[in-house]
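Morning!

This is the sequence you dropped in the shared folder:
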Amino acid sequence: MFEKLKNLSVKRNLSVRLLLFTVFFVLIAEIVIYVPSIANFRVNWIKQKLAEANIAILVIEAAPDYMVSRMLADELLTSTENYAIVRKMDEENQQALTVVEPFKISAHYDMREITWYQSVKDAFVTLANLNRKGYLIEATGDANGEEYDEISIVFNEELLSQDMYDYSFNIAVLTIIVSLLVAMLLYYNLLNLLVRPVTKITENMIAFRRSPEDLTKRLDAEDRDDEIGIVMRELTKMQDEIRKALNQKSHLAKLGGAISNINHDLRNMLSSAQLVSDHLSTIDNPVVQQLAPRFVKAIDRAIRLCENTLQYGGHEVEILKISTFNLYNLVDDVSTSLGLLDNENITLHNKIKKDQKLKADNDQIFRVFMNICRNAVQAIGESGNITIESFIDNNKIIIDIADDALGIPEKIKENLFQPFKSGSSGGTGLGLAISREIIEAHGGTLDLLKSDPNGSTFRITLPLQN
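The structure's back. Tokens below.
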């Protein structure tokens, strides 16, 4: 019960994180949009006031002697919310509307020469000055009429700051609404496309781990063409293969237990038979002396078959003990163990470089060489040669073990690396099967490179490790 609640909590946490991340990234996008937007709002706001000032200043041109009454001037300034409106035609001629009271200009902005960076900077300066009272700024722009005329206005920046804050508030409200709407839409789609399928896969994997034999827990893959669909289908196939392998393993384990009991009893019987055979060899009878060696040899083969079967049935994956060793010396040790150093009929030619190093499990690689070379000795018979050489190719070491025997029969080739199928001369065929497992555990390959009446060659490929 606790684990179910925990899984549900994890599911909810994933959904909540997805929703929060979606809202967060939408807000980031809105902020990126807001920055140039507020800067553009400020520029347009000031240009709008300059346009209003251009209209107001036209009253002076219509007045006699370009003079207007104080009352009219105050009305124009009040309606445009300016402290002064000045139109310059040249250095000497200008038209102006100003308040009576003296005022101080704190900053000046020329709207004709403003960069994008400057507009953004000025916008945030203005927002920061919301509560600053009596801060008057002057803005200059092009006047209507002559090409080189300009018009300047003086106004309280608080008006601009307040409108910018109102605009920002409206943008913020709109951003939040859009963010939540987009986030919910994205969340809903991602929930169906990603979160729910992943949750389904996760729950199925947990159930499969607890009871892999339960076919009711089989993942029902969705008919999708995207990556999630591929994962579901591959996971279903993998589970089916694992279930099949577990069933086979269970059957083999039961069969192995039965075979172990049979082998145990059979070995006891064979031990008794071996005692009898040893006694027979002492009887001074020509017929007995002729048949006894065959009888002893057959019993020895039967005992060896039982021992190898038990050994392979109890074989487990061993942890590799990786070390760096001299491959040339290892081949010499194999030659010594097989008794080939003093053998005048069978010669092992060690063509490995004397300084060739290999990083692997020394004992396991030795076992592989022993299995292959022992088979070669048995295949050669009375006299022949075994040659072991190596070379480096594409960061891999390739080792060839060749003999000049008559080759491997086609019937044995078909199941050469299958246990209990490829053995000849009374063997079980376990040597090559175990050898391939060892090489594959090292990340390499073991294959029969060639086999014909001139001999056989086995090739070992191993990655070179630093």
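Headline: The mean pLDDT is 79.

More detail when I'm at my desk.
O.
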